[in-house]
């Protein structure tokens, strides 16, 4: 199939922009421009440079829209009614969402710290945690697979989310999971008996679930700390950089491959699957990291697997880090990439200072924890100016 900008615009027509009225109108009819470099996070779609915090907030709205439109599908708002109940005999938070004549129910089990009285900080773990969780932090087990199945490309439209919103909902699995995270946040706010402090909640996951954790951190502003672990392409990697790695001779996961493998992304995103079409995508994943700013973000990666796109991960997150620099909080984002271990098996070499310090600072109220972390054992250098024809403004 030959991709034309017009076919993309047509397909995108259904989406309702959620841009604040005070922002420049979002021009959905503008043709997509081929850009082999990482797109400029600091320029509105109409060309206006981002020079103030207000501009950045408009740009954030645009980026959230662009990601929904081209990669992830639509994120529905809070449902018409959400019922929540806490069962203290089983430490279970029970949620029921109602929309039209449809109802879905799901449970989140909570593992509380053995000591202390709460309200406790907590981390939402997609499918259970694969990083060590420190004392004092509760764990909320999120069965994201039940919310939106991710077995294969045939999983499209299967799961509780689609029971509520219909099989034809445009939301990808990752967008459906992010919706689920937002409902958990609603439930924690509404349920003081659960004894969790909703202002100190993080999200984590590994591999495919790491991609999902990064999306939830970008879309849900109540998340205080986001820890994507070994998320690779589709997570901390940039599509453009992964394509470059592939062309340079490293077999790494690309957009071409991922769109056929599973339902993490929307059907719309498959338009960017033919080799050579990624330069038309108006966003890339450095902007997903930028959407988490200024909140805590610790990106954990692994150089032992070419498939994860180690150089792409490192370069992409280096570009994303500029948003934290622009907002005057460079140490709210950390990056740690080490090889020599199995996928999703957390090495002690990444425990300290990075993991401990980020938990201390963003969930355990320890303002003195130092979260200045930027390390990799990737050998190929990444030079941002070769991939970006932009610099970042000072916004704070
Ligand atoms: C949630 O947990 C409660 C209490 O254990 C149980 O009664 C209910 O059936 C569970 N709901 C679901 C959807 O699993
Ligand atoms: C979903 O889309 C298909 C194909 O367009 C259509 O046949 C089907 O009726 C739709 N299902 C629902 C529940 O809207
Ligand atoms: C895309 O095409 C280029 C040029 O033909 C080639 O070098 C590269 O390996 C291809 N990439 C993928 C992911 O197939
Ligand atoms: C705060 O974090 C620092 C650095 O991680 C640590 O050395 C210190 O013990 C922590 N303070 C408390 C009260 O836990
Ligand atoms: C590109 O290929 C060269 C030659 O194999 C290699 O030395 C270099 O590390 C590669 N660069 C990246 C970013 O993978």
UniProtKB/TrEMBL annotation:
The protein's name: (4-O-methyl)-D-glucuronate--lignin esterase
Please indicate if the UniProt record lists Signal as a keyword. yes
List the Gene Ontology MF annotations in alphabetical order: carboxylic ester hydrolase activity
Give all residue intervals belonging to the 4-O-methyl-glucuronoyl methylesterase-like domain: 97-328
Family that this chain belongs to: Belongs to the carbohydrate esterase 15 (CE15) family.
What catalytic reaction does the record list? Answer: a 4-O-methyl-alpha-D-glucuronosyl ester derivative + H2O = 4-O-methyl-alpha-D-glucuronate derivative + an alcohol + H(+)
Question: Which InterPro entries did the record assign?
Answer: AB_hydrolase_fold, GCE-like_dom
Q: Which UniProt keywords apply?
A: Hydrolase, Lignin degradation, Serine esterase, Signal
The signal peptide annotation in the UniProt record is 1-20
Q: Give the E.C. number(s).
A: 3.1.1.117
């Amino acid at each position: 199939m030959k991709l034309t900008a017009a076919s993309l615009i047509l397909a995108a027509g259904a989406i309702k922009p959620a841009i604040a009225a005070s922002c420049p109108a979002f021009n959905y009819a503008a043709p997509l421009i081929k850009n082999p470099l990482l797109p400029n996070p600091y320029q509105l779609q109409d060309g206006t440079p981002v020079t103030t915090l207000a501009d950045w907030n408009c740009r954030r709205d645009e980026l959230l829209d662009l990601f929904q439109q081209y990669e992830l599908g639509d994120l529905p708002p809070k449902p018409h009614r959400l019922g929540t109940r806490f069962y203290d005999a089983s430490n279970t938070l029970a949620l029921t969402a109602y929309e039209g004549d449809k109802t879905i129910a799901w449970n989140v089990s909570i593992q509380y710290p053995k000591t202390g009285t709460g309200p406790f900080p907590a981390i939402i773990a997609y499918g259970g945690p694969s990083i060590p969780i420190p004392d004092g932090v509760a764990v909320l087990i999120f069965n994201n697979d039940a919310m939106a199945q991710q077995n294969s490309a045939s999983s499209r439209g299967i799961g509780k989310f689609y029971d509520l919103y219909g099989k034809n909902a445009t939301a990808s699995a990752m967008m459906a999971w992010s919706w689920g995270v937002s409902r958990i946040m609603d439930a924690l706010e509404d349920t003081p008996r659960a004894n969790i402090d909703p202002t100190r909640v993080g999200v984590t996951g590994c591999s495919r679930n790491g991609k999902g954790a990064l999306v939830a951190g970008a879309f849900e502003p109540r998340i205080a700390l986001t820890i994507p672990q070994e998320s690779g392409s589709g997570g901390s990697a940039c599509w453009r950089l992964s394509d470059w790695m592939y062309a340079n001779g490293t077999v790494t996961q690309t957009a071409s491959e991922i769109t056929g493998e599973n339902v993490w992304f929307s059907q719309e995103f498959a338009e960017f699957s033919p080799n050579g079409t990624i330069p038309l995508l108006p966003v890339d994943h450095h902007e997903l990291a930028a959407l988490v700013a200024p909140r805590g973000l610790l990106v954990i990666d692994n150089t032992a697997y070419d498939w994860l796109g180690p150089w792409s991960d490192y370069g992409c997150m280096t570009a994303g880090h500029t948003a934290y620099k622009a907002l005057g909080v460079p140490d709210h984002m950390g990056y740690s990439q080490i090889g020599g271990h199995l996928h999703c098996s957390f090495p002690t070499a990444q425990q300290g200072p990075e993991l401990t310090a980020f938990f201390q600072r963003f969930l355990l109220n320890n303002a003195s924890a130092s979260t200045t972390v930027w390390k990799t054992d990737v050998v190929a250098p990444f030079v941002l100016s070769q991939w970006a024809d932009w610099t970042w403004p000072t916004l704070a």
